Amino acid sequence: MSLIDRSEAEALVEGRHGDPFSVLGLHRTAKGNRIVALVPDAQRLWAIGAKEVELEQVLPGLFCGTWNEPLYRLRAQNAQATWDFEDPYRFAPVLGSIDEYLIGEGTHHRLWEALGAHVMTHEGHSGVHFAVWAPNAQRVSVVGSFNSWDGRRHQMRRRGSTGVWEIFLPGLVPGDMYKYEILGAEGRLLPTKADPVGFGAEHPPATASVVRELDLHDWGDGLWMKGRAKAQDVHTPVSIYEVHLGSWRRVWEEAGRPLSYYELSSQLVDYVADLGFTHIELLPITEHPFDGSWGYQPVGLFAPTIRHGRPEEFAAFVDAAHRRGLGVILDWVPGHFPTDDHGLRRFDGTALYEHADPKEGFHRDWNTLIYNFGRREVANFLEANALFWLEQYHLDGLRVDAVASMLYRDYSRSEGEWVPNCYGGRENLEAIEFLKQVNMLAYGKSPGIMTVAEESTAFPGVTSPVHRGGLGFGYKWNMGWMNDTLRYFSRDPIHRRFHHNELTFASSYTYSENFILPISHDEVVHGKGSMIGKMPGDAAEKFANLRAFYAFQWTHPGKKLLFMGQEFAQWQEWDSGAALDWALLDAPLHAGMRNLVRDLNRIYREMPALHWGDCDPRGFAWIEADDAERSLYVFERRAPGRRPVVVAANLTPIERTTRIGLPTAGSWREILNTESGHYGGANWGNLGEIIAEEIPWMRREFSAEVYLPPLAVVMFTPD
């Protein structure tokens, strides 16, 4: 025991030494060089180099001896086996001073390159470097099957005042499972934790992190990446297919498993491209323990879920979409995280990522925790995560979930149940600053991307640049339009004349933000029914109403978003545990609905008048907005130097022949009619053409007699 202090030896063996690297490994002492090694299941231990020296066992599993060579290996023996291995405690640190400085400052924008588990060669040996932030822990260890999940074996090195712990473990390989065992701030052993910056995880319900290599995919999307800024501009067509990968399609011949990323690379990508959408938006695919959360309660923010494959397979999916000209948007969840013991909750025994006060740190709507956006390391963790997905996986955008819940301290809270900001107000100033920073970093470091806010209040300047006082998002979901339009189309047509403004009111704020018009998963779940189920009337009227709804959505200013299954009018509301009812496409009405969505996307992309002014007030004008008695709407979409499109909607079950105002004389071609037989309608229309005469009407110099089928939308453009 003379070569090592007994109290230190006992602390090591008991797993409560705060600085194991100061004792373990090779150290110069006044009595010569000393090796100390902790190998709990060894009965004898030798240091091996040019010579072989047996070390003395000073406590069970702890060995010590003198050693005068610069390098060594260890040989252990017990009653069952003898094995040789490299001592992790003889390796120098991996993290450098720049990493330490940036982590401490909260500005390490590529945090994933410093923290997490990285396969590497260090000092001539291959293995894995682990690093994790746990500033209040008394001890942190890496545990896994490679060390019998024994936290005494690989106790980590604390890096100064950063709160980061690290260790290099030689011999580990991709696919090894691991967790962190943490002795908390109060000296209590915590439940083992998954890696907050882990790049992979076990299949749920198992919860360990898995060592995964990044950069294994050979990207071939250079052409897309070069041109995507133009493809996502406010003046270009953006039409988004929102999808939950686990329930889009399943392989019933194999126990109903969901598709792999590789299978989705062909099946989903081909399907979406054929329908003419410009983007795929994924419900959260960051690793999450509970299927029923749809990914909205993530634990592994840096790991694409293993439910569909490994990280390189997810990269291949994104690449395949890009090669077909499709952007990929990730639903990103920085607004809350689950309380699962293996996650971020009280990660080092303290409220580290969350607020200590439940009035700030607990979200009662979802029984989840709220990030402490005012702590620089937490904000840095999330900011770096946003950049990780954009840079590492070439994603084209982030749709930020539940922004409203982040912006307000009193969100879903009654008086006395929330903590005001430093000025006594309800705004969450730290979250606001965080969102601004995310947007500045995302647009600054990943040119051509888009960020989208799901924000349901009238918070000002969501899509205004940060330097002009805004939050800096590229787009915002137009929840007001969605609610009003759904409410209107759900009404019996006989009552619509009393609610005419539900379709016109949105024009009073259409250009206050850069809007996306969403019919998302939230509208077809939890008893809300399907889109076709919301429509009034008999079966034929339901389909006519829904066709008119989609045509109104595609011609109204704003980018478009439709959730999977709604393109063919699935009857059942969405079930995340099943798959879409693809058999419906054998029925003409359902196939016709999909044909309509395909043609709406085609015309939307081909006609600049229908997309150029989505976010520009010069692109829209009402021709008739006040004919409530007939539930008639007529408006014009336009783009500089391009042919206009005039849209006429008859939203009653009564066919009408009426005169509408037009901006120019001559022949106007009927480019889409939702009552076409191709879409499942009765094929009533204008025989492909109307003639505008010099008869002033509806405040226009020209007009034409048109036939408007019942419950239909018709579009015209100058021939």
TrEMBL record:
Residues 242-611 form the Glycosyl hydrolase family 13 catalytic domain. It comes from the Bacteria. It comes from Paenirhodobacter hankyongi. Pathway: Glycan biosynthesis; glycogen biosynthesis. InterPro entries: A-amylase/branching_C, Branching_enzy, GH, GH13_cat_dom, GlgB, GlgB_N, GlgB_N_E_set_prok, Glyco_hydro_13_N. One of its GO terms (cellular component) is cytosol. This is 1,4-alpha-glucan branching enzyme GlgB. Its EC number is 2.4.1.18.
